């Protein structure tokens, strides 16, 4: 396993323009991860990574996260089969967020509701009211895949 | 101005499958916003919104955020001219994140470093070392646009 990441430099220009990966984990030890499909850039999910999850993702090429609800390391798709093979990892300017470009195995569904993306509802205005409209249907039946505490 | 958003329902299925926008603001009163270009889905930035920022974004069609570093409401592009016109807003399954599809005005640059996207560095392996490689150059000169506390 690679050694721990170095601490973020105090110098802003080094942090933003440098070639050293120095993730700025927050007070809970997490960075935010945006996950998109390598093929069409569709945003699939938003998740969080602690240091171990980020290291494992870099080392294995499979996306790992930290589950805040289950409070444990989470190898995406371990239960559902919808694993994520990582084609590219990017980091943002101040290094507190990463972007993963992935290919999804299994049913090509990333959301625990069975849909391709977690962002399946659009905000619409109907008769002056703000409502949500569902734009996509489940690709698998979550009830037949997960027990209650397993949705991944 | 629209009235405040309703509280999130206790029922998980209503939260995930319902048509009511009930954003789940965190302990700091924020949801995370992923911002992509409407044209090609390129991820431009990650930001945060408090209730006011989300309401203003829906009402005006221009992206507003909450700046955690400056601790104030932030109309994106007000200083730089790189404003974001919102074509679509989506919400994720558990309603603690939103996805904005936008068109960027001005220099078509979203990052305060002058680049199109904040995610301009790629994680690469060179001689067994993990490094960052810069993949895009600034589209404007931040030094000529911002004072130190204004980068937006």
From TrEMBL, chains A, B:
Chief subcellular site? cytoplasm
UniProt domain Phosphoribosyl-AMP cyclohydrolase: residue ranges: 45-120
Keyword Cytoplasm tagged: yes
CC cofactor note:
Binds 1 Mg(2+) ion per subunit.
A single GO molecular function term of this UniProt record: phosphoribosyl-ATP diphosphatase activity
Using the UniProt record, name the top-level EC class of this enzyme in a single word. hydrolase
Is Aminoacyl-tRNA synthetase included in the keywords of this UniProt record?
A: no
Q: Which SUPFAM superfamilies match?
A: HisI-like
Where found in the cell?
Answer: Cytoplasm
For the region Disordered, give the residue spans: 1-21
Q: Which reaction does it catalyse?
A: 1-(5-phospho-beta-D-ribosyl)-5'-AMP + H2O = 1-(5-phospho-beta-D-ribosyl)-5-[(5-phospho-beta-D-ribosylamino)methylideneamino]imidazole-4-carboxamide; 1-(5-phospho-beta-D-ribosyl)-ATP + H2O = 1-(5-phospho-beta-D-ribosyl)-5'-AMP + diphosphate + H(+)
Q: Which UniProt keywords apply?
A: Amino-acid biosynthesis, Cytoplasm, Histidine biosynthesis, Hydrolase, Magnesium, Metal-binding, Zinc
Q: Where does Zn(2+) bind?
A: 93, 111, 118
Its BP terms in the Gene Ontology are:
L-histidine biosynthetic process
Q: What is its EC number?
A: 3.5.4.19
Q: Which InterPro entries match?
A: PRA-CH, PRib_AMP_CycHydrolase_dom, PRib_AMP_CycHydrolase_sf
Q: Which family does it belong to?
A: In the C-terminal section; belongs to the PRA-PH family. In the N-terminal section; belongs to the PRA-CH family.
Q: Any idea what job this protein has?
A: Catalyzes the hydrolysis of the adenine ring of phosphoribosyl-AMP.
> Subunit structure, per the record?
Homodimer.
The identity of this protein, by name, is: Phosphoribosyl-AMP cyclohydrolase
Provenance organism: Hoeflea halophila
Gene designation: hisI
């Amino acid at each position: 396993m690679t050694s721990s990441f170095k601490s973020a430099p105090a110098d802003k220009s080094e942090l933003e323009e440098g070639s050293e990966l120095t993730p700025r984990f927050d007070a809970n030890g997490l960075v935010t991860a945006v996950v998109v499909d390598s093929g069409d850039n569709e945003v699939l999910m938003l998740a969080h990574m602690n240091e171990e999850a980020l290291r494992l993702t870099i080392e294995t090429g499979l996306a790992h996260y930290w589950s805040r609800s289950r409070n444990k390391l989470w190898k995406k798709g371990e239960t559902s089969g919808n694993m994520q093979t990582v084609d590219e990892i990017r980091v943002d300017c101040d290094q507190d967020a990463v972007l993963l470009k992935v290919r999804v195995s299994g049913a090509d569904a990333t959301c625990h509701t069975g849909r391709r993306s977690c962002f399946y509802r659009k905000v619409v205005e109907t008769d002056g009211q703000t409502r949500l409209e569902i734009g996509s249907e489940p690709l698998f039946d979550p009830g037949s895949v997960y027990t209650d505490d397993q949705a991944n």
